[in-house]
Give the backbone structure.
Amino acid sequence: MADMEPDETVDSRDSACPGPLMDLVGRIKKSDPGTVLELLTSDEGSKKDVPDWLENTRHDLLEIEDQNGHWAIYVKVN
Amino acid sequence: MSGYAIVIGSEELEKVQAASMIAAVAVVSDYELDVFVTMNALTAFEKEVVENRDFKTEGGVGELMLDPDTETQVPLFTEQLEQAKMLGELGIYACTMAMDLQGNTLDDYIDLFDDELGVSGFLGLAEDKEVIFI
């Protein structure tokens, strides 16, 4: 388990592409710079799609953690 | 090229969903984007059709999308486009000709359209964009 302590969690488990990404973007737009967000997703494609989007939009990917059947993707808002 | 213009010409759920997924992700990736809904595709946006989830599907994927027992729920194209509109700049336009033929007005469709448009209007919008025809 990682030691990440997110400021907020976005729970998009059981939502298919592009639901988790869109939920994350919605939260990022409302968040202050420096906020650490945790995105919970069971959509395998998010592991690729979310980092690709973050790379294009200057936010930081901190970690992707496997949590038995879903993933937690940690993001720092810039 | 400064963005994308997506033309949706089919009412098949799979195609409308694919278009809305591309549109939603493009919008949050800061691409300029316009969607032109024409021909039978307009049917999928009719209020009654959306309310009753009475969509035409092409095959297995569409049927799974509509099945409430499917474990992974795909957000319906209406929700995706609505969310995309809240998060960025997205223009959605209905084809005047297809509406007229069916005796419809914008009031017959869900509240997503910015306006109705003819071919010239669409070409103006698409002038500096890559066109994706679905």
